[in-house]
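Weekly structure sync, notes
Attendees: PL, DS, HV (note-taker this week)

Item 1: Galactose-1-phosphate uridylyltransferase
DS walked through the input record. Source organism listed as Kribbella pratensis. Sequence as pasted into the shared doc:
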Amino acid sequence: MNTPRGVRRTDTRLSDGRELIYYDPSDAPARVPLEDTRGLPAPQPQVELRTDPLTGDVITYATHRNTRTYLPPADQCPLCASKPGNPTEIPDHDYNVAVFENRFPSFAGPGRTEVVCFTSDHNRSFTDLSQGQARLVVDTWADRTAELGARDDVELVFPFENRGREIGVTLSHPHGQIYAYPFLPPRMQNLLRQARKHQEVAGSNLFADVLAAERKEGTRVVAENGNWTAFVPEAARWPVEVHLYPHRQVGGIDELSVGERDDFAELYLDVLGRLDGLYGEPLPYIAAWHQAPVRIDRELGYLHLELLSIRRAKDKIKYLAGSESGMGAFISDTRPEDVAETLRKAGQ
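Item 1 (cont.): predicted structure, written out as tokens:
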């Protein structure tokens, strides 16, 4: 397998046949996978896709997910390394980054869903990772993007992380997921529609022009380095929203150069630290990678990461009420320029 330079990949299978992949630094000792002794039955996911005739949106029904593990105590966490009395999804004594097929997938047959465990340390978060550990996660995302994007049944590869109970997290171990959609989700379709219009009128890439405008204007820029800029978008929907863009247009994480991956890890950890500094405690957030579609309108896409939080004050949550839920028309209590200034000061 052609894994990124500096990374060792080790493939194995869990007792029910699901794939498990370890990602280690290339200078780490060679890993000999241990057997999953749980004897799990073969998964039988119940997934149905329906198209809403009013909007054209694809809705996924995955009723088996109602039985998934919900906020277990730390000593029963299924994402920790296995130990006596608690055999887990990762049948080894320790790991750096581990990826496995979700036991309760949102997609089955066409598409695929995976879990990405960022570290074996249950009590850490992505914010606590060293730059080297974060860089290993970036290489993992890149490898999964390339492999999943090569499948005939995948239209978009979407790595993301949900953090915090307010977001709806069911497992507190530091982890993210990857959805390899068998269709283009509504948001990506909307982004491509706007990008296509912009291309026809301006003759240039919409996302590249947005980035250039934000860097020139400057008031919403939170932080930047040689290859990336983090900014609060001019029309942010969420109380806290930060987008991270590479300075070069690429379609996917797997297309990033070594230097671009290094700089992303550095800037991302910086921004996450600023978010946690807002209220002096871990901020609930969603981190959503926006990659170009696998085959449709790929040239219109522009890789970037969108970070958002529903917390609008230390003790207040932004709920999607009538206007947002009923009509999709967001009304925000926070001004993007003020949020950007607060985040800039959080890093001082």
